[in-house]
Amino acid sequence: MNAPLNPTAVRQQLYADMSPQHLTPLWEVLHALVPPQPASPCVPAHWRYADVRPFLMRAGEAITAEEAVRRVLILENPALRGQSAVTQSLYAGLQLILPGEVAPSHRHTQSALRFIVEGQGAYTAVDGERTTMHPGDFIITPSWTWHDHGSEADGPVVWLDGLDIPMVRFFDAGFAQNDTRKSQVVTRAEGTSYARYGHNMAPVRQDAPFGATSPIFSYPYERSREALEKLERDAPVDDWDGVKLRYIHPLTGGSPMPTMATFMQRLPPGFNGNPWRQTDGTVYSVVEGHGSVFVENAGQTQEFAFAPRDHFVIPSWHTARLRSQPGCVLFSYSDRPVQQALALHREERLS
Ligand code: 1HN
Description:
The protein contains eight helices and 23 strands.
């Protein structure tokens, strides 16, 4: 007579026998597949500029921009090492260009944003138009547009690159090409796009030249700063965000890129914000001032005390709050437009 059947043994035998057919029982993984709420594998992380900058400068001695194609130190989420990802959907890196260097022209379907962190006088060229970089400027490279960078500055220029690389990889939808030219031929005067699209006006007979991506390549910090300062003085301050605005595609009012939303906010002096959580994991670049972000997940709270040019990431559905004694300015980006298009985005404001 056979021994009585033990259900665990029966199941283990079933799994082992069907495994060669690439079959797996759902009931063993169901809970992890549809968690009651987001359970991001990402962790909160903080990159102090004082710690990162020496490595950027060493990279500047170790390799030229041209050899590297893009001389970038990737900000990898500590829980996603090796994946070139700061969240599950987003990439972040700090790029260095030195006087006289060129980062050669290429194009890809991944969209990129540049947020200028240090130095000025470098340029990026997009579709034949150059834009000079200044700290705090937010610059766009639309999907599938030729772009190269160069520097006629007298010192190092560093910017944050934000790309949708993990998202495009997820969809297996990426294409890329190198240009035959090192630098693009300039075909339009600097500032043309901003004059056309950056003044609450638009051409009378012309469609959006980059479709879903904003035709404004560069959103100057001067303008954003001015708006936030005025609102901080003259309008109510939000208890969660301080004074916060989103950047827009001027012809649609939507996000400047189809895959990424960008924001700039000012926390007034003495700001002690309420906590919130949202499904879009968000990367921050500290523009001015000092402060702290408190990030809580599963009962654990971490504090990151930040300074200008620092970067930090708040993963999906982690509860966060911001505090600043002297006041500060923060730039941030996330995959919110994608989540909104898919009707997945959720935000909860707590008190
Ligand atoms: C890229 O093209 C740039 O153009 C920066 O500056 C970072 C990371 C991965 C793939 C392409 C750039 C990038 C990148």
